[in-house]
Amino acid sequence: MLYSLIRPLLFALDAETAHELTLAGLRRAGHLLPVARPLPARGCKVMGLDFPNRVGLAAGLDKNGEAIDGLARLGFGFIEIGTVTPRPQPGNPRPRLFRLPEAQAVINRMGFNNHGVEALLENVRAARYRGVLGINIGKNFDTPIERAADDYLACLDKVYPLASYVTVNISSPNTQNLRQLQGASELDDLLGRLKGRQRALADRHGHYVPLALKIAPDLDEAQTINIADALRRHRIDAVIATNTTLARERVQALRHGNEQGGLSGAPVREASTTVVRRLAATLGGELPIIAVGGILNGDDARAKLEAGASLVQLYTGLLYRGPALVRECVRATSGPA
């Protein structure tokens, strides 16, 4: 109810300004109010972790982990922060975030803007939240693609002690050439190096932190199967499907519909669910799928589980629906997957 009153004011502002104000409000709420509990539901175990409900926050909303405690008040079963890079970087020039209200969509070309991994870790240490926390890692924009693994390994080393799980983001369309890492040979090399480092870190720290890979929706069936095979071969712990899309067929007639960047929200729902379904058919339950993309109501969340996902994540839907979306999706996904 409260969000329905606030939303017109936020939508009167530039999209990135509204995002910054919302994050600042959540940060303040997290500082001033008691630690919140997740919304009650039938929990589940995924990646060896206990999730109090199946609905999480997708990476991208809180890139620096500045509002973890405030976001926890929305009732999520888990929170994913980032994408974070080894060094701070400003991202792409503004404007770089655009609403498409007629399509319940957003286009962004943020470009991994973040304060760097050290700043994120300071924020995580300061947070009171003790639930499942994913940390999403990426490469700096000026790191050559042939050295991308060095950035991922550097981030993994840093975040491993504080993360419940770590997501490797190779699917953002806003860092030049990043999606090349989804190619067969590049992916094989990257996953092999990450898995080796994960084993070493588990020995060093005395506990195992799962690795998830986040992939794009713009994959054909053969590409999806190749990625699934690589995930199995390297014993990656989960796959997140999907990131934003470069497709514009459903929005090109709308204002901002042809802006460069990744499209999220309702127009990516079908493509994202198709990737989830293909992964589920290929993987046969060997590793879990976390579904994100186009979830605007409880039925959308339940459809992701029916397609083969174990967990779901929200982002763009929160912009249009507010905190009520979290409660609705928790109710819709409370039964057995």
Write up what this structure looks like:
It is a single chain. This protein is α/β, with parallel strands linked by helices. The protein has a single domain (about 1-330), classed as Aldolase class I (TIM Barrel). It contains eleven helices and 13 strands. The chain has helices at about 1-10, 15-30, 70, 115-125, 150-160, 185-205, 220-235, 270-285, 300-305, 315-320, 325-330, and strands at about 45, 50, 55, 80-85, 95-100, 105-110, 130-135, 165-170, 210-215, 240, 260-265, 290, 310-315. The strands form three sheets. It has an eight-stranded parallel barrel, surrounded by four helices. A hairpin with a 2-residue loop joins strand 1 and strand 2 (about 50). Helix 5 runs parallel beside helix 6 and helix 8 packs parallel to helix 9 (about 300-305). The longest helix has 22 residues, at about 185-205. It is globular. The chain starts with a helix and ends in a 5-residue tail after the last helix. The model has no long low-confidence stretch (mean pLDDT about 95).
